[in-house]
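User: structure tokens for this one?
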Amino acid sequence: MMRKIFAIGLVVLITGIFGYSFSSYFLRASMNDPAVEPEVAEVSKPEKTMKPFVSEDALKEHFKKIAEKQQRDRREMQKSASNTAGLSQPSPASSMADSVSTKAEESKSSKDDESITNNQHAGVDEGGIVKVHGDHLVILRRGRLFTVKVGSNSLAPVSSVNAYAPGVNPSNDWYDEMLVSKNTVVVIGYSYGRGGTEINLFDINGGSLKFRSSYHLKSNDYYSSRNYASRLIGDKLVFYTPQYIGYGDPTSQFPAVRKWHKGATNDEFKKIVSATRVYRSPRSEESANSSSALHTVTVCDLASKDMQCEGTAILGSPGRIFYVSAKSVYVWTSEWDRLGGDTTTSSMVYSMPLDGSAPSALGVSGVPIDQFSFLESDDQHLNVLVRSQGNGEQMWGSERTAGDVALFRTSLDAFNDGSVSASRESYRNLPNVEGYTMQNRFVGDHILYGAGNGWGRQKNTDGANLYAVNWKTGGTSSLYLDHSVDRIEQMGGDAVIVGTNGADLYFSPIDLSRMPSVKPSFIRKNASQGELRSHGFFYKPDGNESGILGLPIARSGRSGYRHLVEGSAAVVFIRNRDMHLKEVGELEAKNISTADNCRASCVDWYGNARPIFLRGRVFALLGYELVEGRLDDERMREVRRVNYSPGMRMVEMTEE
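Assistant:
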């Protein structure tokens, strides 16, 4: 119910999250202070990988010890409650929903060449709201799947089906992400009604969609305001799910899957993770919070007709941020902490190989901002931008971080069984940021970061600092911008920063070829971003130093959270020539109606507008409209549009 509750009380909740001063969040805490330096365990030679539990009995014995320690800790907390009132965090046994108002290895394949998703890594596709299958676009919106044929001289709706299984009540469900693998469409959702992650499979043939099967997986809500829960690498579906361990028998809460059918019962759930596939570091014996969440990475083979899945899980602290490279899933865990003060969050980072081999771990300090804080580089190192304090990315955690900034860099060989922490030399202190919410991204040899408005209201600002750090050499540049830092994107080998000064939207090119420098901005008057997620942006190069970018825009000064309830006005297209930006036009929305008899996912948590560059053609997805444009004499002109909303052309689905 949490996302639904949030939708009902949207303005109240956003005000609660962002309406107060963040000044107390920026208290300094040195990453190199010996008081916060990770302790290095005195072991002669740690194991290279973590150890699994040897049996179900051993796993239950572990949880018995943890429960006894939690009881002792609660008694101690009760004794001192009068002195610590208002300072405690949610207990590990409570879900994140309770704490927020009840909520590649780079491939050169032809598929990557025609990707329409602004992925972090080529070859690692991310779950999104629009994908390509042959001559059709597949679109996920408001609990339904749609296909639109993009013929050479036409646009035509072909098929529309519910994104969920027939016979279910979807009123408390959210269908967020979609991927396409050969002739299979995968929809990833979260069901509060049935309690877990939902994977729905559809057959696609010539644009026609047909429901195949549905699977339910026990988990907590995976939602993040910035990250995506699913990835596709070849035919392998990879997705992350958290499970916060509560009272009673924790093993009964472990990930389990059932194939849905009418009359399905809880007795049909089969565990997807056995005790011998659950790993923990030696430190999990020492801290109850270090065993308060089960972080599971599931890999499913979509090449088979019936989805075959294998899961690997680690016991860790509840705060989490995950990142997927072509070979591994990295999960950075931390204890939920009160932001502010002079302490640094103690954390662990886990490397979970996609081939199913044993994971490894490393003790670390601080917390990343989001998945864009990570880079597994070709020199076999993990590079991560961290702040001294944070609570992970679950729900809106990435919007709230605090403390000092550092670049963490370690060799992949340093990972072990978790008994040893990274050395002090693994951290490089960086300049702090002052502002509302932090953005960061690796672009080439640099990590760029700065502060912007995020989900809050668009504030008037005189400008902001952007920092560009060469993660290879350590060179740091401080660049001044005339606007906030609300989006950092790659533009060829360089970057573009998008932000506002309160009334106008700025696009500032950042030249990274030599010493980082700011080039003249393009200013879109009386506008703001229409989408905040990374997928809202796309840059299509057409030469070494040229290309076109697209971004949904909205009215001037619109608060960031309004993207959930207000559609984008248009998609603006901007030409880049040698770091000089010039608008070539926009494709605008004309039909903003949502009178669609929506039954599920009736808030666009993952957005509804995208620029699309496909085989030399240009499109703008704007709600239920798909608009095609064409560049004539460097001006974008509308060619055609189609409304694909429900009722235009509907295909009923039946259960096999």
